[in-house]
Amino acid sequence: MKNLTAKLLLLIILMWTTSCTNKSTVTPYEPTPYEIEIPFGFPTKLNIPENNPMTIEGVELGRYLFYDGRFSGRTHPDSLMSCATCHRQERSFEAGVDHPGFPGGFPHGITGIPTPHAMLPMINLVWNTTGYGWNGLLYPTNPNPDARNIEDFVRMAALAPHEVNGDTTRIKNLFQTIPGYPELFEKAFGSKLITFTNIGKAIAQFARTLISANSKFDQYMHGEVQLSQSELNGYMLFTTEDGGDCFHCHGGFGNPLFTTHLFYNNGKDTVFNDIRDRFAITGDPMDHGAYKAATLRNIEVTGPYMHDGRFATIEEVIDFYSTGVLSSPSISPLMHHVNNGGVRLTPQEKADLLSFIHTLRDDEFMTNPKFGKPEKFPDE
Amino acid sequence: MDKLFRQRIQLLYFIVFTWCIFVFSGCEPKSDTPEPTTGKLSFHFSHKIDSEPIVFDDMRYVNAAGNHYLVNEIQYFISDVTLYHSNGTPLLLDQWEDIHYVDTDLPETQNYIFKDEIPQGTYDSISFTFGISEEKNYSLMFVNPPESFMFWPENLGGGYHYLKLNGKWLNELNQEAPFNFHLGIGQIYHSYPDSITSYVQNYFTVHFPVSAFGVKAGETQTLELVMNVENWFQSPNIYNHDTYGGDIMQKQEVMALAVENGWNVFSIEFMTYK
Fold first, then answer.
1. Residue range B172-192: average pLDDT?
2. CA A52 – CA A285 distance, rounded (Å)
3. By the 8 A CB rule, do A136 and A263 touch?
4. Which residues contact B35 (CB under 8 A, 6 or more apart)?
5. Using the beta-carbon criterion (under 8 Å), do A240 and B148 form an inter-chain contact?
6. Is the predicted pLDDT of residue B22 greater than 90, yes or no?
7. Is the pLDDT assigned to residue A24 strictly greater than 90?
8. pLDDT in tens, A128-145
9. Are A356 and A232 contained in the same domain?
10. Which residues of A are less than 8 Å from B166 in CB distance?
11. What is the pLDDT of residue A20?
């Protein structure tokens, strides 16, 4: 009996010491959770898929990938293309009308094929729960599991002829060969073996950190600054039905996203030929000619405007809503001034409304180094 | 050796005995379980015109003023749901979450299961606030959609829309004209639109004094709460869209007509137990 007890004791000690040895040789996969700080008045519900929790390591990797032109899967200087090729921080992550490579702010892919729509602001995406894209083609409850979130947008951008025109295998293989990247993937996802799924996850994590919430209007909401009389007049016009009536679709104090992320036919046309409008997603005839109401944060730097970029300036947009609205069976009921052609603002009212819209510009966001291009890439 | 062996056997007996006590005492039928004395209540919301479920987006309806109209969407809040027991005692329900949002585009909002355990018995009537009462209607209390999209601008009184009833009517020129039949806090203007002297709380109480019903212990009573949309436009005030136009948020005198018409907009169609 004593002999047996001694053997058992020895076995337990052996198992204990062996397990300790194993633990010390394996690098643990312990990414650091990334906490999104919710700005004043913003929603607390976030659109973060369960299979891609935010981590500091994932966001850091995503930032490298977002800015690395080798995302095209190519290394020739003429063939580089990254997300940042079109999504410029100084233009609230749109191209902007002054983009050096895309005249008028109309992007085209690496092969020269233009994108079918103008760009949408790439900010505050973590609060978009109704669908990404002008028609909301990517939404969390989509029966198609490959079309639900920003991760899927990354893959679509990589493949689309009017964007990167790439090959996901080639792209992930290229990053596998670049010194430094496998280690970053290991820190973020627990494996040095790079997959395109993890490339998409990392870029999506970085995209979800692009939060703009420190405009002059935000500071006004916090009681830190006062708006000028013209800005206040414009705010009044923005938030009244007898004024510009912008707020029902574009928010305000009670909805500081400055969008509902919903889809409206705002009266631009009477004939609808675009195969990528909201109708293409829902099949509802009332969605002909309907598109997402874009956020108005930083809107002054994100031209051209509307889904097809038909307006180059905000002044043109205000003119449209003032006198250019057209009736059609599917026009949104919120466009209740349609039979007058619009809200019919005076020149002074237009100027005041523009003054208010300028208060939605967030320069701190558009110059924040943590959202900018890394000083050097992992292999530099 | 023998002594040690005996001690271990005794220890084993003790462990088995203790385990048996725990297991069998847990399996004993509980003969003194109290019978339930409470039940649950839920609302199912439906929306009708002329006693039929609304066919949305179809210009098939005619209101009391003779306006042909269609309805695109309806969004609203009800709050302070209260049951009145046959002994006269009021019972305010869901004090944790007493403001409920309903949206005809969001089926999940059209069922409202109250958290309260409601004492069984007969209740003579039920009431609720259409909209949100003054003490509860403050800005930014809803930061998440869809409720946050109902915000009512600060400069018009703040808080939230009580109602958005959006549609179109055929105007005098036979044009389809959108209407936004929106209710919320009204404004009294000194000089329109810049100088507001006071605000008007337009929420109102809906009361069903003859809707006696019973709550059975252990069961859920479901009430079908129907919004009869045509009643917004007919009694006691004939509401003519040609007269009042497409928007009323800044027209307190028109919102007041709507509030007066709201008294019989809701009805309880049927009740079921589950």
1. 95
2. 35
3. yes
4. B217
5. no
6. no
7. no
8. 999 999 999 999 999 999
9. yes
10. 333-334
11. 46
3-class secondary structure, A267: coil
Q: Is the pLDDT of residue B69 over 90?
A: yes
Q: Does residue A47 sit within a domain?
A: no
Q: How many residues does chain B have?
A: 274
Label residues A315-350 b or e (16+ Cβ within 10 Å = b).
eebbebbbeebbbbebbbbbbbbbbebbbebeeebb
pLDDT at residue number A17: 46
Q: Domain check: are A261 and A119 in the same one?
A: no
Task: Inspect the interface and report whether the beta carbons of B178 and A261 lie closer than 8 Å.
Answer: no
- Judge contact between A322 and A343, C-beta under 8 A: yes
- Percent of chain B at pLDDT > 90 equals 70
Distance CA B136, CA A285 (A): 39
Q: What pLDDT does residue A51 have?
A: 97
Q: Count up the domains in chain B and report the number.
A: 1
**Which range of residues forms the domain containing residue A257?**
216-361
A378 in a structural domain: no
Cα distances (Å, whole numbers) of residue A46 to A83, A128, B149, B243, B264: 23, 8, 16, 44, 40
Cβ neighbours for A352, distance < 8 A, ≥ 6 positions apart: A230, A231, A233, A234, A237
Calculate how close chain B gets to A223, using CA atoms only, in Å. Answer: 14
Cα separation, B45 vs B126, whole angstroms: 15
Asked whether the predicted pLDDT for residue A21 surpasses 50, the reply is no
Residue A375 placed within a domain? no
Do A74 and A89 have their domain in common?
yes
ipTM surpassing 0.95: no
In a domain, A370, yes or no: no
Distance CA B111, CA B107 (A): 8
Check if B195 contacts A (Cβ < 8 Å). no
B56 → chain A, closest CA residue:
A286
In total, how many domains does chain A have? 2
Token pair, residue B193, equals 């639109």
How far apart (Å, rounded) are the C-alpha atoms in residues B43 and B57? 25
**Cα dihedral A81, A85, A89, A95 sign:** negative
Tell me, yes or no, if the pTM score tops 0.80. Answer: yes
Rounded Cα distance, B89 and A280, in Å: 54
Q: Which of A212, A242, A247, A270 is nearest to A343 (CA)?
A: A242
B5 within domain boundaries: no
Lowest mean pLDDT: which of A30-39, A141-150, A172-181, B89-98? B89-98
Nearest to B177 among A240, A255, A339 (CB): A339
Q: What is the pLDDT of residue B269?
A: 79
E-state strands within chain A: 263-264, 291-292
| Per-residue model confidence as pLDDT tens digits over B100-151 | 999 999 999 999 999 889 999 889 889 999 999 999 999 999 999 999 999 9
Contact A240 B153 (CB under 8 A): yes
B168 interaction partners in chain A (CB closer than 8 Å): 333
Query: What is the structure's pLDDT at B21?
Result: 54
Q: Which of B91, B146, B77 is nearest to B121 (CA)?
A: B91
* Cβ–Cβ gap A255/B151 under 8 Å: yes
Chain A residue numbers touching B158 (CB-CB < 8 A): 254
Asked if residue B22 belongs to a domain, the reply is no
